[in-house]
Amino acid sequence: MARIGSFLVLLYLTYAFTLCICHDDESNYGRERGNLFPGFYRSSCPRAEEIVRSVVANAVARETRMAASLMRLHFHDCFVQGCDGSLLLDTSGSIVTEKNSNPNSRSARGFEVVDEIKAALESECPNTVSCADALTLAARDSSVLTGGPSWMVPLGRRDSTSASLSGSNNNIPAPNNTFNIIVSRFNNQGLDLTDVVALSGSHTIGFSRCTSFRQRLYNQSGNGSPDTTLEQSYAANLRQRCPRSGGDQILSELDINSAGRFDNSYFKNLIENMGLLNSDQVLFSSNEQSRELVKKYAEDQEEFFEQFAESMVKMGNISPLTGSSGEIRKNCRKINNS
């Protein structure tokens, strides 16, 4: 694993030199789009992206799984109050942390890496780069470091001064949700079915806890029977690792073929009825339009990569705080002056 991590770091650092430099016309275009644009920190903190990239590269070299964890933090942040870093706040004063919500408790991780990123940014250019932007960049870098696509990240988000435990509990799709509920929760954030399928493709990396898929193995419909859409030999293998009771924290790969490599294998698994989570498999089994998207991405990895990048930018633009709204936190875990 260490060798793989070191190779990925080298690959990404080599790639980083090829990143294009934003020009003034891009900056002006970004301002017209709502104050988010790739060159936001060009003058105030020109090394911001380089700093984030370096910290994330080191973290993923230590533990490849961290790439998936950072991408998940960005997703869970954006679905609650928009991409404003609210998930990063600890409980303090009037703040009730989102970290204790059902989707995040005992599963959200990577906060220490975000702390490390923020400390490095504050050392380079104090009070300049928001935690929300740092997390958005970290998600992009996590994709690239595991072999996935890159994209220009519009920047300029500011940090919230509040969190929403109820929003975290109610807005984020759950592993056992039905297809219609999943699509509805994405739609509520301005994301469409294409975004649902493409962004779900991030499950090509990372792991999930036994408690998130146990229902499919033993009691899918409340009648004591397993999920019939789950491939039988795959289900038998999962039952050996995930008991009927206990072992909630036992991990299984979201993508049985390449949990550490960002590719289109996830979609190929769905076609074989080997999606780990119910929320994964319903993309193939419950709707014709989403099924066709799954087939398309399974056949054409570049098509998937292109749409994933586009959908990540779209998700990253959910209700950002800009201008004088919010603040630039000095510490991502607490609001300033608290």
Automatic annotation (TrEMBL):
Its main location: secreted. The keyword Oxidoreductase applies. It comes from the Eukaryota. Pfam families: peroxidase (PF00141). Residues 35-336 form the Plant heme peroxidase family profile domain. The keyword Manganese does not apply. Keywords: Calcium, Disulfide bond, Heme, Hydrogen peroxide, Iron, Metal-binding, Oxidoreductase, Peroxidase, Secreted, Signal. Its EC number is 1.11.1.7. Residues 1-16 form the signal peptide. Its cofactor is Ca(2+); heme b. Binds 2 calcium ions per subunit. Binds 1 heme b (iron(II)-protoporphyrin IX) group per subunit. It catalyses: 2 a phenolic donor + H2O2 = 2 a phenolic radical donor + 2 H2O. It is found in: Secreted; Vacuole. GO terms for molecular function: peroxidase activity. Belongs to the peroxidase family. Classical plant (class III) peroxidase subfamily. Removal of H(2)O(2), oxidation of toxic reductants, biosynthesis and degradation of lignin, suberization, auxin catabolism, response to environmental stresses such as wounding, pathogen attack and oxidative stress. These functions might be dependent on each isozyme/isoform in each plant tissue. This is Peroxidase. The gene is LOC104700180.
